[in-house]
Amino acid sequence: MPISEYIKHIRAKIGKELLLLPGVTAVVINNRGEVLLQLRRDTDAWAPPSGGVEPGETVAECARREVLEETGIEVAPESILAVLSGDEYNMTYPNGDQMATVTTVFRCRPLTAGAPRVNDDESRAIRYFPVDALPENMLARHRMIISLALNRAEGAYFNPLDE
User: Fold this and answer.
1) Residues 6+ positions from 65 with CB-CB distance below 8 Å
2) What is the pLDDT of residues 88-132, one digit of tens each?
3) Which residues contact 83 (CB under 8 A, 6 or more apart)?
4) How far is CA 103 from the centre of its chain?
5) Cα–Cα distance between 99 and 124 in angstroms, integer?
6) Helices H, strands E: what count in the chain?
7) Which of 3, 28, 111, 133 keeps 20 to 30 A from 119, CA to CA?
8) The pTM is what?
9) CA-based nearest residue to 62, from 34, 35, 31, 23
10) Is the separation of the CB atoms in 127 and 117 below 8 Å?
């Protein structure tokens, strides 16, 4: 995965220490009720498109940019489904870099009618899945946020307050 110039600059100062970063995840549901997923190259698991917010960018702009960069699909964010944070979202990359995230999860609708495609080096595959045929190799939190998107939950989910 390419690292942004902003993160490179910070890492040059703090090394591999824990870095807290804002991120987004986009649950894209088309007019057939199918969910857009990417087979991630780093984890070899299916997941909604996601990524880090750049300086000066809003979280909604980030959601649009990340989906377009990863899938070639333009989207419109419709609602915030969840704000996820805490120890379960901390990770250490193979190079030793430590990261914690606060992730804003959006429900989005596609503006592009064409088929999605692998549009960068972060994915092995990109496709829409019927909600009753989601792939097995997904994280439980991704299944949870897809469920929130499909059920159009009132308000946003905040962990761990709702647990």
Assistant:
1) 51, 57
2) 888 888 889 999 999 999 999 999 888 999 999 889 999 999 999
3) 102, 103, 104, 105, 156, 157, 158
4) 8
5) 23
6) 3, 9
7) 133
8) 0.90
9) 23
10) no
Residue 147 per-residue DSSP state: H
What is the average pLDDT score of the chain?
A: 91
pLDDT digits (tens, 9 = 90+) for 130-151: 999 999 999 999 999 999 999 8
**Single-letter code of the amino acid located at 67:** V
Q: Is residue 162's pLDDT more than 80? A: no
Long-range contacts of 93-96 (CB under 8 A, 24+ apart): 95/16, 96/16
The closest of 81, 94, 101 to 147, measured between CA atoms, is 81
Contact between 45 and 39 (Cβ < 8 Å): yes
Q: What pLDDT shows up at residue 88?
A: 86
